[in-house]
User: Fold this.
Amino acid sequence: MRVLVVDDDPVVLESCKRVLESEGWQPRVCSGALEALEALKEECFDLLLVDIKMPEQDGIFLMERAIEECPDVPILVMSGYPTSETVARRQAIGARDSISKPFTPDELLEAIHRMLEK
Assistant:
């Protein structure tokens, strides 16, 4: 499974990468929305893990454009700031689920598996 992980925190990127690789998946990490959009132009992914709060362009911006590039891609939102506004916006865009930061490797995998079962 090809997974695109987008977060401006290098620790989160490295942690997610290790967890996903341990499952035999192929993660590609990007440190921002614009870099992720370039990756989406190169290939479609089986799953997107997207942070909401990022400099320059946020996760909402990225998700809106990601749906245009790969309309059926499931999106899991990662956020340290899960407000009712961001939850409503991510649902309106079509992101299937979210996980609050910080999270453990087991919580990440559980959220991914739960989302993929839907």
Remarks:
- The chain has a mean pLDDT of 90.
- The chain has five helices and five strands.
- The chain has one domain: 2-117.
- Helices lie at 10-22, 33-42, 59-69, 84-93, 105-117.
